Amino acid sequence: MDAVSPPSKAPFSLTQRLDEALKQPKLVRVLKLMLFVACLWPMVEPPLHLYLDPLALGANPAEHIIRDWGDWALQLLLLTLLVTPLRLWLGVGGLLRFRRMLGLFAFAALCLHVLAYLGFDRFFIWDEIWADLLKRPFITLGMIGFVLLLALALTSSRAMVLRLGGALWTRIHKLIYPAAILAVIHYWLMVKRDVTEPLLYACLLFMLLAARLPQVRPWLKKRRS
Ligand code: HEM
């Protein structure tokens, strides 16, 4: 007698399960809330630290806070750029749902970084700020990066996608690439001796940008299969 074998099930990998899970609105909402808290905490922590223990941030708390917020802005920018390669590599389209939040938090951290510089470092003395912009290349490049990211933040809503049309919107949002390059150069120029950290960021950024090349994208997808 012929034994009828059960129909073989297609293997259901972890990434496929993740992709399915990210189609559930409830789970996405919970994950977004967790991401929100995780992104917010490094922005709230330095001033809270200063408030609870004024000596905790060392001799120059203003510099400490400006740097902490600058670091967080750059890290979030790179995380935002990681979403697309990760989506291609894992085949989890749902990851895109978190990209906008990461990008907006990067911009929020950047606003705090710039505000802290204007207030704590330059006490809103506009002549000094203007002189800095003209004479210190790392400030000039940082400001150009800030303006590019401002354009992205202002056009990030769904309404703006509809208003501008997909093609123009995509072109505007490609400004994240020069903005991230300027941010790394800004850090590099600021550092006087040990360039280890900016070099590390530069390597990460290089890989994230290379992952977008038409020659590399198919390779990422192939690794998935
Ligand atoms: C894309 C935009 C920017 C990013 C991602 C960024 C990020 C950073 C990073 C990572 C640092 C070094 C932090 C550390 O030493 O650990 C830094 C330093 C600094 N940034 Fe920015 N920045 C940006 C734009 C700006 C702008 C527009 C300004 C001012 C107008 C500015 C002012 C400063 C200052 C003054 C420091 C040095 C802090 C100090 O040593 O006292 N940055 N930034």
Q: How would the blueprint of this fold be written?
A:
Elements: H1 14-21, H2 25-52, H3 61-90, H4 99-121, H5 126-135, H6 137-154, H7 158-164, H8 166-173, H9 176-190, H10 196-210, H11 217-224
Question: Care to describe what's here?
Answer:
With 225 residues, the chain is mainly alpha-helical. The protein has one domain. Helix content is 76%, strand content 0%. It contains eleven helices and no strands. It has helices at 14-21, 25-52, 61-90, 99-121, 126-135, 137-154, 158-164, 166-173, 176-190, 196-210, 217-224. The protein is globular, with a radius of gyration of 22 Å. The two termini are 38 Å apart. 17% of the residues are buried. Residues 63, 66-67, 70-71, 73-74, 77, 110, 113-114, 117, 121, 139, 142-143, 145-146, 149, 179, 183, 186-187, 190 line the site of protoporphyrin IX containing FE.
Structural class: mainly alpha
Characterize the main sheet: none
Work out the radius of gyration: 22 Å
- Give the overall shape, derived from the CA principal axes: globular
Q: Give the tally of structural domains.
A: 1
Determine the N-to-C terminus distance. 38 Å
Give the structure's gist in a few sentences.
The chain has eleven helices and no strands. By secondary structure, the protein is mostly helical. The structure holds protoporphyrin IX containing FE.
What descriptors fit this protein?
single chain; 225 residues; mainly alpha; 11 helices; globular; binds protoporphyrin IX containing FE
